[in-house]
Amino acid sequence: MMKRYRRIGAEIFLTVAVVISLKQWFFPFLISLWFHDSLIADMVTEWTVLIVGAFTFFIYLGLGSSAKHVHHLPMRQSILGFVIFHLPLLLENAPLVQSFCRDWKNLLGDLLVLFFPWHFFSSLEIFMVYLLLFLFGRVIKITDLDEERAGMKEERLHQSTF
């Protein structure tokens, strides 16, 4: 069981770390190279925030699907694993993880602020949004198109022989 938790935890951590590094360093670096006009750079940065927020939305759906269909974690154990690996998000004032947690919260928080500028989203609210996306993702099963086609061919072959 611990092996499953370690695997889903590594998947969550690596995915979130890559998206944070893209949002915080790589995309701004490219924007600064390509767009010298500050107005255009600000507009492109805002679009980048929208795109990263949408990616984060789909990433958490995918993580929920992966927890169920790849790591075979039941609902209770998925929620427990999610809470364990997202606990630093709730402890955002801890000195060791403060910067990482702020960036983690802002992956989706920056997108939500663009649509709800009058509301400040707390870490708990962002945590709950991530949890809901993760749980909705458990309903989705992602299949490879080639596997799906192979199954359809096999089914047609089976139907034609009878």
Automatic annotation (TrEMBL):
Keywords: Membrane, Transmembrane, Transmembrane helix. The chain crosses the membrane at residues 12-35, 47-67, 79-96, 116-136. It comes from the Bacteria. This is Uncharacterized protein.
